[in-house]
Prior knowledge:
Layout: H1 3-13, H2 15-34, H3 39-76, H4 91-143, H5 151-173, H6 177-180, E1 184-187, H7 188-199, E2 209-213, E3 219-222, H8 224-240, E4 245-252, E5 255-260, H9 280-285, H10 293-304, E6 307-313, E7 317-323, H11 326-329
Parallel strand pairs: 2-4
Antiparallel strand pairs: 1-3, 4-5, 5-7, 6-7
Helix pairs in contact: 1-3, 2-3, 4-5, 7-8, 8-10
Amino acid sequence: MNPVHLALCYLWEKRASAFLVMGACAFFFVVTELYHAPMELAIYTSMMLVSGASVAFFVGLYRFCATYKDLHVLLRQSTASLQQMPAPRGLLDKEWQQLVYAVDAVRRSTVERSEAAVRDAQEYYTLWAHQIKTPLAAMQLLAQENETDTKDLFLSELFQTQQYVDMVMNYQRMASITRDLCVCKVDVDAVVNSAVGRVRPMLLGRPDIMLDVQATGLCVVSDTKWLGVVVEQLLTNAVKYTRHGFVRIYACDDTLVVEDSGIGIAPDELPRVFDRGYTGLNGRSQRHSSGLGLYLCRQITHKLGHGLWLESEQGKGTRVFLSFPKVAMMLE
């Protein structure tokens, strides 16, 4: 913006003061005429007033131009800090700057959350892409074998590949899970049986593991699909970390329990098992561990209003509890 335009803009902002000065000069001439005083007095007084107003105008114009340049530079520098803004010249300027600071704080918070979400997604997809290579490579090798005894291994690897694909889809849907929920009365036994059917390929070729599914008789308020995702993940973990013994599913009051006689979890790792990406010692020893299964389960159950916790003893097994609060059972 050129200097003339800036001067006109500033004059327009100070138009009230300009009219006041002109009105004062006119008043002096009227009073002089009414009292038949020497006209030189009115002229001298008006000149003094106009001179003082002119000095004030040019000083204000200088400060106005300097402030405009500073703000224009800040506007062009998208990374500029608000701390570089010109100092306020009055109460209103100060209030306007406080408003700008408040809006900028909200903007920065939104940007930080967005950047964090993008980083989390990038980390997850990188990890997922790395993990998916293992079962794919195993299936390629098994596909080259003609022996029938490799069929069970092939189906097991195929199931785990499907699980990784389902996991990445569920992770993507987590941001909008509330729009995807269809809350209704759910037969827990039907959900469990469906999850068991999907997990059975992991048990092929593993006769040392007994799967014991007991009827629960539970009918809860939940979402069939997302509850099935949780139950399937809990069963998958139980089978994955059990070398021999049993995997048992049963109900205790209004709580679904998934128990196994697997390798268990160290006491110092228990508080972190629901953290995103945490695999622990057991997970690091397993080539099919991404550290996201229990994290997704915790996020889903939180959205559904269910409780989820576990108990474990290293070398003796783990029990995972999925509770359905009674207050939710009363909903229609």
